Amino acid sequence: MRHLLTTRDLSRDRAIALLDIAEDMADVSQREVKKLPTLRGKTVVNLFFEDSTRTRISFEAAAKRLSADVINFSAKGSSVSKGESLKDTAQTLAAIGADGVVIRHPASGAPHVLAQSGWIDAGIINAGDGTHEHPTQALLDAFTIRRRIHGAASRGKGLDGVRVTIVGDVLHSRVARSNLWLLPTLGAEVTFVAPPTLLPADTSGWPATFGFDLDAAIDARPNVVMMLRIQAERMSAAFFPTSREYSRAWGLDDARFNRLGTDSIVMHPGPMNRGLEISSAAADSVNSTVLEQVANGVSVRMAALYLLLSGDREDA
């Protein structure tokens, strides 16, 4: 694998293979010594132009468990704050010998520019670019769903027939877009539920169905309900009247949670706005996979780094 920039071009076989490798990486985390020598001598740079907790720490833990050297870069306090361009930053990383770059950037398409520019020969992983994509989050979501549904017999399996309802701020969510392409590739049936103002104007070609009524979606008995964070930092206008009204119409409150099936899975990519998108009862229930998603993120990102940096990388 040359780069991991999007889930849109992942085939079913490649996606399942990556999830299977993540299963092997998860086994490592159960050992007394949670390290592999696979990437010894490799240098991974976490290049974060936006704030992050889970993703940055997860990638750092993943690289260190594979014995790579890790450099954490934050735009705050760096030359970026003085006006340094992405090109100059990339060339600096190339000069220090970075083998892999994990980039989070507020501009949609920034990882693609970095991968195709020729400024650096490192493998690039997209850790979230604007409102475009967040491929490793979708992969860890799929990994978590697969484990919950298939348990110990997960290896080699997809998500055929699994009904996934994704609720909330689809318009600004890169998590939603990455799941949009990955989950149907693995065989899942995806439905988006959101206020009309928080769905993109053009969804032609999207392999999903759309609705505005969360109660009707819950009555359809989905296997998975994934709540999205309201991304106020990306909103330049009022997309709904009040937080209270949003929570009443599109929040997973206690009443809606109690109507879900006992084996339904409740997910959230985090950070959660409790009481707005999801109630504490739902977030802390046995149906919730919120903490599992965080733990599984390390395994999935270990698999991605392994495929990206071990051996000879493909040219495609």
TrEMBL record:
Choose any GO biological process term that the UniProt entry carries and state it: amino acid metabolic process
Quick one: which residues bind carbamoyl phosphate? Answer: 54-55, 104, 134, 137, 270-271
One annotated Gene Ontology cellular component of this protein: cytosol
Q: In which pathway does it act?
A: Pyrimidine metabolism; UMP biosynthesis via de novo pathway; (S)-dihydroorotate from bicarbonate: step 2/3
Arranged from A to Z, the UniProt key words for this protein are: Pyrimidine biosynthesis, Transferase
- InterPro entries attached to this UniProt entry: Asp/Orn_carbamoyltranf_P-bd, Asp/Orn_carbamoylTrfase, Asp/Orn_carbamoylTrfase_sf, Asp_carbamoyltransf, Asp_carbamoyltransf_Asp/Orn-bd
Matching entries from Gene3D superfamilies are given as: Aspartate/ornithine carbamoyltransferase
User: Residues in domain Aspartate/ornithine carbamoyltransferase carbamoyl-P binding?
Assistant: 2-146
Give GO MF terms, alphabetically.
amino acid binding; aspartate carbamoyltransferase activity
Q: Which residues form the Aspartate/ornithine carbamoyltransferase Asp/Orn-binding domain?
A: 160-308
Reaction catalysed? Answer: carbamoyl phosphate + L-aspartate = N-carbamoyl-L-aspartate + phosphate + H(+)
| Claim: Transcription is one of the keywords in the record | no
Per UniProt, L-aspartate binds at 82, 174, 229
EC category: transferase
EC assignment? 2.1.3.2
Looking up PANTHER family in the UniProt record yields: ASPARTATE CARBAMOYLTRANSFERASE (PTHR45753:SF6), ORNITHINE CARBAMOYLTRANSFERASE, MITOCHONDRIAL (PTHR45753)
Quaternary structure, from the entry? Heterododecamer (2C3:3R2) of six catalytic PyrB chains organized as two trimers (C3), and six regulatory PyrI chains organized as three dimers (R2).
Q: Quote the protein name from its UniProt record.
A: Aspartate carbamoyltransferase
**Source species:** Cryobacterium psychrophilum
- Primary gene name: pyrB
